[in-house]
Design brief:
Helix content: over 70%
Radius of gyration: 30 Å
Shape: rod-shaped
Order of helices and strands: HHHHHHHH
Structural class: mainly alpha
Largest sheet: none
Strand content: under 5%
Number of strands: 0
Number of helices: 8
Distance between the termini: 101 Å
Amino acid sequence: MLLEKFNEGGIFMYFILSFAILSFALIIERYFTLFKKEIAPKSDFRNQMLQYISSGNFSEASRFAEAAKNDTRTNKAIAKIALVGCNLRAQGAGDEEVQARMDETLTQEIHNIDRNTGFLGMFGNVATLLGLLGTITGMIHSFAAVASANPADRATLLSKGISEAMNCTAFGLIVAIPALVAFAVYQNKTDQLVNKITSLTTEIFHDILFLTTKQAKAQVTVQNRTPEAQLSN
């Protein structure tokens, strides 16, 4: 029954079928990427990083972030971003360089998360337009055939053309609706991940910035007080 309706839809049904296959494959890929592979970053990662950063042990913080990249319980994106910041700080990089490199890594990770989701919206819209185009061409063929046909055959030819037009519309919508629904769901999930990663990246950068600044001030204070302490002794 379905194959018969497909054959009645005309040549545009094959284009709609192509987008149906692409949409189905992308829906599966996005599901495993956003819901299985990518997990929301957890606050305990930052808490663990704070223990190393507050003590100025950036080498140990880098080792922790490196290990977290391979841990399925940790968001890999935030681990990579934290690793970049800690490595630079361990090498004595300034605040602007640390921020620039962390922002650069954040942008790349956001791109990796969001790079294919937008295609679902496009596939859904194109499938709808192909169904509409098939409908229009089916009606054109129908009226053109009726105009030059015998009166006895006009009803049959008109029914055939309308059937072709409606089948294209139906199949186009069958492909478009799941694609657009999946696009909305996945885009919402992507936004949630991006917001959490961006927020945690900002927090880690502020930890690196303010805690190391406090450490530097404390060291300067100790150095300034040392000669006085020696004289008093």
